[in-house]
C-alpha cells in the first residue's frame, strides 16, 4: 500500500489541529457563557402599582390652569413697619457686615416696597450653595441676565399666568391698549447701593436702542424686539423718577406677555454713562482702549457691560463679585436685592451659586452621580432611564415640567425652494413643495407611533406642532391634522399628483420620468434618529429621501440660499404662539417652511415698506393662504380684546391645519430637571421655556437647603466677596487701585525690561554662534508664513470687527442683500470633502449598501 503523500499528511494534521482548537475554543466559550449567565429564573423586583402609577402621572407633565401656583404675594404697603412682610430678617453673612458698618440696615437696602415671594414649600432658611452646570462659557454667561435673574418690570408665574409685578409695583393700560404705564417700587437700588430709577431705563432706550439702532444683540447694542409691534417701533417716555410709559401706534394687548420675557432693558447710568461713545468721557475711553487693547469706543462700552464684569452693578438676586478667567464661576447674594418672604426675611435664601462647565455628554453623568443641587438644562429625555434609576442611590429626584416648546423636531417643507435653471429638477421640487396635497401625503406616510416607541420610549402622542390642549390657543383640528398613519391614502394622493411612475429601484419619479430625490437636512447638533425613521417610512410609499447631517454653519448657508428641500428643526415655545408665531405664519427667515416670505414680512412687506423689495425676499401671492395668515396674525396683534385675539389666531391655526405648513411627529416628552434631596421650593408643576425665563418664573430666590452645605471657610470667602468685590483686569478702576497701592509699574518699566532682555540675548548669541545661525535660518521661514497669512487673511476685503454688527443687523432686519455671495460660498462648500453625512434608503426603509453619499440634485458630490 503506497504511503500517503507527505504534503497530504501535513494538511490532514493541520486540519485535525484546527478542528481540535475550534472544539476547545467552543467549549471554553460555552463554559464562560454558562458561568456568567444571569439567573433568568429570578425576575427583577417591579415597583408596586401605586409607585408605577405615580411615575406615569409625573411623566404626563400636565398643567393645572384651574389652580396655578403663584409665588408672588400681594401685600398692603401702607402697613409699613407694622406689616409682617416688612424687611427685618437677613442672611447671617449680611447681618455680620451690617454690624461691621459695611452695609446699611436691611430695610434701607430693600426699600419700603419690596416684592414679596413665597416658595411652594413655604418659608426657607438661609445659607448654602446651588451647584449647577453649563456646557460652555457662552452658555454660562448667557443665562445670567436672562433665566438666572429675570430682572424685569413684571414676571411670569410657574405655570405662566398670572403675570405678576416685579421691579414694577403696579401698572395701568389705556382703554385702547396703546399706552402702558408702570410705577417702580420705591427704594429700589442697584447692587452697589445706587438708586434705580426710570433714568436707567431711558438711558438704555436713548443711548443704546436709538443710538446704536440695533435690533439684535451686538457688541454695544441690545435686544429691543419687545418694543416692536405690528411692524412699528414703540416709544418709551419718562413721567417721573418712578413712572415710565410705553406707547404704541396700534393696540398692543400682548405687551405684558412680551415684557415678562424681556430682559436687560435698563442700564446703571451712574456707572456706564462715562464709557458711552457719544456722552462718555473721551479721555477715560481712550485710556481704557489702550489699557485693554480694544479697537474702538464701542468695544469699550461693550466690554464694560460684559456679564462677568464684577464692577458692573446689577439687579440680580446673585451677583458676580470675584473675577475668574475660567470656570467654575461663582455668584454671591445681592445685599440690595429688593425681595423678601412673607415674614420679612430678605431673599434669596441661598448664599451662593456655583456654575461649572462640562461637556454636554458628561452633564448627565454628573447629575446621575449626584454632583449638582438643581439642574434644569442640558438633560435629554433619552437619558431618562439612567437618571431615574440612579436617583434614589445618589440622593436626588426628578421633576417633570411642561415644555413650552411643543415639538422636539419637525419637518419644514421649503415652499420657497430656489429654482435653478441649470437644474430642471429644482422647478419640479418648488412646484411639489408648494402643493398642500404633497405635504399631506408625506404626513400620512409617517407611522408616528412607531417613531414614538423607538425614539421617545413610548412617551407622547401623534400630533402636529400645535399650542397643545393646555394652551389658551388650543386647536384640536390643527393638533391632529393628517397625523393618522395611512400609507394607502398617501400613495393615492401622490398618484393624483402625477407621481405614479417608478424608476428601476422602485422609487417614484417626477411627472416627466426623471429621477426624484429629496433631501432632509439637519445639523449635527440634533439627534438624527427621527429623520432616519421618517426617510425609511417615506421609502415605503416610493419617496426617495436622503438624510443630510451638516455642520451648523453649512446648514445656515444652505438654508439662507433657499437650497434645502426639507429642514428638520425643533419648535420654539408654541404653547404661547402669539409671542413667536414663526411656525404658523411666515414672519421671519426662521419660518423655515417659507423663509423668503418670512423675510419679506419682517422687512415690512405687509405694510408696503420699500425695503421688502430687495433681492432674496419674496411676497406671497395676494389672496394665497400664506398671505392671509400674515393678515390674520396682524389682526390678532392689534386686537382690541383677548377674545378677538384668540378668534383671529384660531383662524391662523385653521389655515395651518388646512395647508400643513410643517410636518410634526409627536407631542414632546416632559422637560426634566434633577433636584437634590433637601433642596426645596422647586415646583413639581411648571411650564419651562425661554420666553417664560425658567427657572426664574418658579421663584428661584426662594430655593433653600434643609441643611446648608458650606464650610466656614466658604462662608468667609462669600462674605469677603460681598464686602470687597474684585475688579475687572485692566479696567480704569483696577489700574487706579493698583496705582494708589503702589502696585503699578512706571511707564518706562516695560521698555527697560525689553531692552534688558534684548541685551542678554545679544550677549548669549555673541558667545554661542549656533544661536544666531538658527535664528538666521528662521527668517525665510517666518517670511513665507507672513506672506501666506497676509494673502489669506489680511489681503481680502473686509474686517471682522466693523463688519460683525452690520451682519447681525441684516439678520435681524430680515432682508438678505448678499444671496449671490452666499450661493457662491455654498458652491464652494459643496466641493469640500467631508461636508455631508447622508444616508440613502431603498424602498422598504433599508439603508443603501454603498458607503458613498448620493450627489445633490443635478450635481456631482465628491465628499461624504
List the helices and strands and how they pair.
Blueprint: H1 6-36, H2 49-60, E1 72-73, H3 92-99, H4 106-110, E2 115-117, E3 129-134, H5 137-144, E4 154-157, E5 160-165, E6 168-173, E7 179-184, H6 198-212, E8 228-229, E9 232-233, E10 235-240, E11 243-247, H7 255-260, H8 269-272, H9 282-292, H10 297-304, E12 318-319, E13 329-333, E14 339-340, E15 352-357, H11 360-368, E16 374-375, H12 384-391, E17 396-403, E18 410-413, H13 424-433, H14 436-444, H15 448-455, H16 476-480, H17 487-496, E19 518-523, H18 529-540, E20 545-550, H19 552-560, E21 566-569, H20 595-602, H21 625-637, H22 642-659, E22 663-664, E23 671-676, E24 679-680, E25 687-688, E26 704-705, H23 712-723, H24 732-740, H25 749-767, H26 769-794, H27 800-813, H28 819-830, E27 837-842, E28 846-847
Parallel strand pairs: 2-14, 3-15, 17-25, 19-20, 19-21
Antiparallel strand pairs: 1-2, 4-5, 6-7, 7-11, 8-9, 10-11, 12-13, 13-15, 16-23, 17-23, 18-21, 18-22, 20-27, 24-26, 27-28
Number of helical segments? 28
Structural class: alpha+beta
Distance between the termini: 65 Å
Beta strands, count = 28
Question: In angstroms, what is the radius of gyration?
Answer: 32 Å
Name the overall outline. Answer: globular
- Would you tell me the overall average pLDDT? 87
Helix content, binned percent? 25-40%
Read across the widest sheet, the strand sequence of neighbours is 22-18-21-19-20-27-28
Largest sheet, in brief, is: 7 strands, mixed
How large a portion of the residues is in β-strands, by DSSP E? 5-15%
- Regions with pLDDT < 50 over 5+ consecutive residues? 215-219, 797-864
Amino acid at each position: 500500500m503506497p504511503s500517503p503523500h507527505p504534503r497530504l499528511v501535513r494538511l490532514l494534521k493541520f486540519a485535525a489541529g484546527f478542528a481540535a482548537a475550534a472544539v476547545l475554543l467552543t467549549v471554553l466559550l460555552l463554559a464562560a457563557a454558562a458561568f456568567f449567565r444571569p439567573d433568568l429564573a429570578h425576575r427583577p423586583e417591579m415597583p408596586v402599582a401605586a409607585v408605577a402609577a405615580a411615575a406615569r402621572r409625573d411623566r404626563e407633565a400636565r398643567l393645572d390652569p384651574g389652580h396655578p401656583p403663584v409665588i408672588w404675594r400681594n401685600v398692603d404697603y401702607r402697613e409699613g413697619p407694622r406689616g409682617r412682610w416688612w424687611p427685618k430678617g437677613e442672611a447671617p453673612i449680611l447681618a455680620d457686615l451690617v454690624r461691621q458698618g459695611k452695609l446699611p440696615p436691611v430695610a434701607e437696602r430693600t426699600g419700603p416696597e419690596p416684592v414679596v415671594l413665597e416658595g411652594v414649600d413655604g418659608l426657607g432658611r438661609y445659607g448654602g450653595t446651588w451647584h449647577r452646570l453649563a456646557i460652555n462659557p457662552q452658555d454660562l454667561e448667557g443665562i445670567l441676565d436672562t433665566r438666572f435673574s429675570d430682572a424685569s418690570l413684571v414676571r411670569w408665574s410657574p405655570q405662566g399666568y398670572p403675570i405678576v409685578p416685579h421691579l414694577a409695583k403696579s401698572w395701568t393700560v389705556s382703554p385702547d391698549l396703546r399706552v402702558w404705564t408702570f410705577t417702580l417700587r420705591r427704594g429700589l437700588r442697584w447692587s452697589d447701593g445706587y438708586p434705580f430709577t426710570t433714568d436707567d431705563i431711558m438711558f438704555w432706550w436713548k443711548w443704546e436702542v436709538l443710538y446704536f439702532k440695533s435690533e439684535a444683540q451686538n457688541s454695544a447694542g441690545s435686544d429691543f424686539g419687545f418694543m416692536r409691534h405690528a411692524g412699528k417701533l414703540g416709544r418709551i417716555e419718562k413721567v417721573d423718577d418712578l413712572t415710565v410709559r410705553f406707547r404704541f401706534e396700534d393696540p398692543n394687548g400682548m405687551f405684558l406677555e412680551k415684557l415678562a420675557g424681556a430682559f436687560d432693558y435698563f442700564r446703571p447710568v451712574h456707572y456706564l454713562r462715562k464709557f458711552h461713545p457719544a456722552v462718555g468721557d473721551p479721555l477715560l475711553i481712550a485710556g481704557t482702549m489702550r489699557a485693554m487693547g480694544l479697537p474702538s469706543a464701542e468695544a469699550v462700552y461693550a466690554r464694560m457691560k460684559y456679564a462677568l464684569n464684577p464692577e458692573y452693578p446689577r439687579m440680580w438676586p446673585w451677583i458676580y463679585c470675584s473675577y475668574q478667567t475660567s470656570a467654575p464661576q461663582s455668584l454671591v447674594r445681592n445685599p440690595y436685592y429688593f425681595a423678601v418672604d412673607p415674614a420679612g426675611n430678605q431673599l434669596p435664601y441661598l448664599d451662593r451659586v456655583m456654575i461649572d462647565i462640562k461637556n454636554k455628554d458628561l452633564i448627565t453623568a454628573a447629575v446621575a452621580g449626584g454632583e449638582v443641587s438643581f439642574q434644569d438644562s442640558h438633560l435629554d429625555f433619552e437619558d431618562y432611564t439612567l437618571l431615574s434609576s440612579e436617583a434614589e442611590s445618589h440622593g436626588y429626584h426628578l421633576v417633570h415640567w411642561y415644555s413650552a416648546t411643543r415639538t422636539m423636531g419637525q419637518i419644514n417643507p421649503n415652499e420657497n425652494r430656489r429654482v435653478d435653471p441649470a437644474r430642471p429638477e429644482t422647478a419640479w421640487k418648488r412646484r411639489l413643495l408648494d402643493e398642500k396635497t404633497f405635504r399631506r401625503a408625506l404626513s400620512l406616510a409617517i407611522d408616528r407611533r412607531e417613531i414614538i416607541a423607538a425614539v421617545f420610549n413610548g412617551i407622547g402622542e401623534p400630533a402636529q406642532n400645535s399650542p397643545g390642549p393646555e394652551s389658551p390657543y388650543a386647536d384640536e383640528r390643527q393638533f391632529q391634522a393628517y397625523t393618522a398613519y395611512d400609507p394607502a391614502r398617501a400613495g393615492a394622493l401622490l398618484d393624483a399628483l402625477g407621481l405614479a411612475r417608478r424608476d428601476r429601484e422602485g422609487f417614484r419619479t417626477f411627472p416627466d420620468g426623471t429621477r426624484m430625490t429629496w433631501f432632509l437636512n439637519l445639523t449635527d447638533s440634533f439627534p438624527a434618529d427621527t429623520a432616519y425613521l421618517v426617510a425609511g417610512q417615506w421609502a415605503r410609499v416610493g419617496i426617495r429621501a436622503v438624510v443630510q447631517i451638516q455642520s451648523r454653519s453649512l446648514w445656515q448657508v444652505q438654508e439662507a440660499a433657499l437650497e434645502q428641500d426639507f429642514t428638520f428643526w425643533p419648535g420654539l415655545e408654541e404653547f404661547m404662539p402669539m409671542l413667536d408665531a414663526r411656525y404658523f405664519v411666515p414672519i421671519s427667515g426662521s419660518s423655515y417652511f417659507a423663509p423668503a416670505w418670512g423675510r419679506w414680512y419682517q422687512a415690512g412687506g405687509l405694510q408696503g415698506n420699500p425695503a421688502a423689495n430687495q433681492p432674496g425676499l419674496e411676497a406671497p401671492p395676494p389672496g394665497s393662504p400664506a398671505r392671509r395668515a400674515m393678515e390674520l396674525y396682524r389682526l390678532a396683534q392689534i386686537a382690541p380684546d383677548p377674545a378677538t385675539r384668540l378668534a383671529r389666531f384660531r383662524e391662523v391655526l385653521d389655515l395651518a391645519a388646512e395647508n400643513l405648513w410643517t410636518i410634526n411627529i409627536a407631542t414632546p416628552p416632559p422637560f426634566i430637571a434633577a433636584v437634590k434631596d433637601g433642596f426645596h421650593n422647586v415646583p413639581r408643576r411648571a411650564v419651562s421655556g425661554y420666553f417664560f425665563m425658567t427657572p426664574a418664573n418658579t421663584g428661584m430666590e426662594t430655593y433653600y437647603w434643609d441643611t446648608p452645605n458650606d464650610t466656614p471657610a466658604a462662608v468667609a470667602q462669600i462674605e469677603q466677596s460681598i464686602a470687597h468685590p474684585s475688579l475687572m483686569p485692566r479696567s480704569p478702576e483696577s489700574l487706579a487701585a493698583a496705582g494708589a497701592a503702589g502696585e503699578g509699574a512706571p511707564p518706562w518699566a516695560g521698555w527697560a525690561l525689553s531692552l534688558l532682555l534684548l541685551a542678554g540675548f545679544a550677549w548669549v548669541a555673541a558667545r554661542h554662534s549656533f544661536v544666531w545661525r538658527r535664528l538666521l535660518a528662521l527668517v525665510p521661514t517666518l517670511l513665507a508664513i507672513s506672506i501666506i497669512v497676509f494673502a489669506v487673511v489680511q489681503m481680502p476685503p473686509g474686517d471682522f470687527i466693523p463688519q460683525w454688527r452690520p451682519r447681525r443687523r441684516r439678520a435681524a432686519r430680515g432682508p438678505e442683500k448678499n444671496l449671490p455671495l452666499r450661493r457662491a460660498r455654498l458652491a464652494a462648500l459643496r466641493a469640500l470633502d467631508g461636508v455631508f453625512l447622508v444616508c440613502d434608503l431603498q424602498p422598504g426603509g433599508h439603508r443603501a449598501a454603498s458607503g458613498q453619499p448620493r450627489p445633490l440634485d443635478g450635481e456631482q458630490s465628491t465628499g461624504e
